[in-house]
Amino acid sequence: MKIRVLGAAAGGGFPQWNCNAPLSRAVRQNRPGFLARTQSSIAASADGRSWAVFNASPDIREQIAATPELQPSADAPLRSTPIKAVVLTNADVDHIAGLLSLREREPFTLYATRRVLDTLAANSIFQVLNPDYVERRELALEGETELHGPEGALGLSIETFSVPGKVALFLEDPEKKDFGTSGGDTIGLAIRRSAHAGQPHKTLFYVPGCAAIETAFKERISGGSCLMFDGTVFENDEMARTGVGSKTGARMGHLAMSGPDGSLAGLADVDLQRRIFIHINNTNPVLDPHSGEASAVRAAGWEIAFDGMELEL
Ligand code: MLT
Ligand code: MN
């Protein structure tokens, strides 16, 4: 299975258009070691020809331009795409806005939970995805799904599971408990090639948003080939510390890397071949490869995702 990181940053990207904090300034100035990152998305393929995209980032047009595998091949019809399916893990703007760029009467299959499909259905702008071309399929909150494109199975299967999270920012209801968060707002995925006799399962766990580490989650991912996990913030109160805002990671539905309940400590004893932080906010000091935080993360065995990162599982 081939994996491409299309966008390693969280919502806003790196640099964020209106951010003048030192990290965003450093990447704008091309300081050594600083890499610009687009917003949150990965792609996977079993055969290298047909691809599933996981989360449709507002930057998808630029991401396709940077990824030849996702462009029409030379011998393909005049209008075509290797992107046969799009799978959403929540309804956040950084994960759905790219759907609007995939509108040119091109067939693909769109997978999401009922909660996320209802959000798309309630926003008439998503009718630009003509149902004659884009089939919307519901993902169960638990279970295995064979991914299909318009011409058939992609040879990829996904296992869906709920993770602690939060309803999308633009859907928050301040009157309601947890701002109206409910089941299906945030899922994680196990992505693997469809079962082949005698072949070991190599699994990528893709969890770009997660608010807490639960025991059942640790058991589920244990033994996995690779985990790509929510790397939004290093410190829970990092937005306040850096002076750019007041929201904590927890308030945004994102578990911090550091601290006794953070992801570094919480996942330290889990058996994984690779562990990679993804969905990294522009305030996170790990974006400076020379920072103490980046060193600490690397010393704990984690990699920090970047756009164009390739994995072969
Ligand atoms: C998040 O991951 O918390 C969201 O993408 C924030 C946002 O809507 O920009
Ligand atoms: Mn996000």
Name some characteristics of this structure.
313 residues; alpha/beta; 14 strands; globular; binds D-malate; binds manganese (II) ion
Write the layout of secondary structure elements.
Elements: E1 2-7, H1 22-28, E2 41-45, E3 51-54, H2 60-65, E4 83-87, H3 93-96, E5 108-112, H4 114-122, E6 134-138, E7 143-149, E8 152-162, E9 187-193, E10 204-207, H5 215-221, E11 224-230, H6 238-241, H7 263-266, E12 272-278, H8 292-299, E13 302-304, E14 310-312
Parallel strand pairs: 3-4, 4-5, 5-6, 10-11, 11-12, 12-13
Antiparallel strand pairs: 1-2, 1-14, 2-3, 7-8, 8-9, 9-10
Any overview of this molecule?
The chain has 313 residues and is α/β, with parallel strands linked by helices. It has a single domain (2-312), classed as Ribonuclease Z/Hydroxyacylglutathione hydrolase-like (Metallo-beta-lactamase, Chain A), CATH 3.60.15.10. It has helices spanning 22-28, 60-65, 93-96, 114-122, 215-221, 238-241, 263-266, 292-299, and strands spanning 2-7, 41-45, 51-54, 83-87, 108-112, 134-138, 143-149, 152-162, 187-193, 204-207, 224-230, 272-278, 302-304, 310-312. The strands form 2 sheets. A 7-stranded mixed sheet has the order 6-5-4-3-2-1-14. A 7-stranded mixed sheet has the order 7-8-9-10-11-12-13. The radius of gyration is 19 Å and the shape is globular. It binds D-malate and manganese (II) ion.
